[in-house]
Amino acid sequence: MGAKAQQVTAAQVRAYRILASGLDRSAASVAGLGVLDLGVQDTGGWSVLALGNRLPADHGPVDVGTPGSSSDLALAWSLRGTPHVHRRSDLPVMAAAIWPRNSDDAKARLMGRGDALVGAGIDPLQALADAAGAFRSAVTTTMTKGEASTAVREAGPPEISAFCRACEVVHPMEQLFRLAALPGGVGAVPDTRPIELARLRPAVRLPKQHDGSDGLVDRYLDRYGCGSAAEIGAFLGTSAAAIAPDLPDTVRVTVDGHPGLSTDDHLSRIQEVDVDAARAVVRLLPPGDPLLSARDRSVLTDDTEQRKALWPHIGTPGAVLAGGRIVGAWRPKRSGKKLTVTVALWGRLTKVQRAELADEAVLAASLRGAVTGELAGA
């Protein structure tokens, strides 16, 4: 039998995550944003607010450059095949870190399509390598996603494509296409509709094998403090078995009874966290914000209906953070140069919190290019 699990509370873990992800605006510059160690998911262009929430309020929008520019940040399909803002210098390391360890890992990362490939007698890892190679040879200039899809289909073997009932055409399997882009040296152009893809500069080489030495699991624990192997694997886009070789020396923990893993160092940080400092933070968290992205969602709220409101099947809202917990959801509405933030609260806010939330609505508006921002519903 191993050592007895250490007990911590959800409130302590929330406080740790609020501060560890930089929501107290302790970073003076983009370079100081530790949240970029795993990247920041860009859901509907709202990464600008996720980043802005972690910088001084007067910092202004963060520059996420095109794939071929020289800016410090770039947008790429990385973890789980979803768009993330990364430090440009981190992209070669990220490409190797998300490259599957073996065929079973590739199957897990490809989700249902992985099973379909195996069922057809196709090695998922080889299919991913073929798709990444097709990206490298075919996407040599800026293309829309549709154009890139056609180019990759024509450049790659038929095994990487399938008939799509929704599109009524044969094209590369969606998750395979997304996971192959970064290893294939291709990133996404920010704020484009339809999505545009282009070659990354400096060039990202096709990984020869998985490289866990950069410590994505360690970076996860730095950001979130704890989690089960299955939760960490799901966040990184794979299975618990696939990340097992990359796990550091861990200790067992329970978060209000929910089992997970941590390290001695991270556990100490959770136990010693400044809960009052976290409670003082008031923010409008956008969809896909790092604080909302861990898979142990009961840490944020143990209320089933609240979780359904925060993570519906379609149309994910933002979340209202106050008093060290999620206290409601919010949705934006743009009308000309005005952005209205409508909140649905699950409890009462203090007068000070409401005033701070109104300021955050103004910030959200400015970061999305609106002239005025207004809070409604609070």
Give your account of this protein's structure.
This protein has about 375 residues and is α+β, with helices and mostly antiparallel strands. It has a domain at about 275-375. The protein contains 15 helices and 17 strands. It has helices at about 10-20, 45-50, 90-95, 105-110, 110-120, 125-140, 145-155, 175-180, 215-225, 230-235, 240-245, 265-270, 275-280, 305-310, 350-365; strands at about 5-10, 40, 65, 75, 85, 145, 160-165, 170, 185-190, 195-200, 250-255, 260, 285, 320, 325-335, 340-345, 370-375. Strands 13-14-15-16-17 form a five-stranded mixed β-sheet, sandwiched between helices. Helix 15 links the parallel strand 16 and strand 17 (about 370-375). The radius of gyration is 21 Å and the shape is globular. The model has no long low-confidence stretch (mean pLDDT about 95). InterPro entries: AlkZ-like (IPR009351). One of its GO terms (molecular function) is DNA binding. This is Winged helix DNA-binding domain-containing protein. Pfam families: AlkZ-like. Keywords: DNA-binding.
Structure keywords:
alpha+beta
Shape: globular
Helicity, in percent? 25-40%
Mean pLDDT: 94
Distance between the termini: 51 Å
Rg over CA atoms: 21 Å
Physical arrangement of strands within the biggest beta sheet: 13-14-15-16-17
Q: Per DSSP, what share of the residues sits in E-state strands of 2 or more residues?
A: 15-25%
The number of helices is 15
Q: Give the beta-strand count.
A: 17
Concise synopsis of the structure shown:
The chain has 378 residues and is an alpha+beta fold. The protein has helices spanning 10-20, 47-52, 91-97, 103-109, 112-119, 124-138, 145-155, 174-181, 216-224, 229-236, 240-243, 264-271, 275-279, 304-310, 351-367; strands spanning 6-8, 40-41, 64-65, 73-77, 83-87, 143-144, 161-164, 169-172, 186-189, 196-199, 251-255, 258-262, 283-285, 318-322, 325-335, 338-345, 372-376.
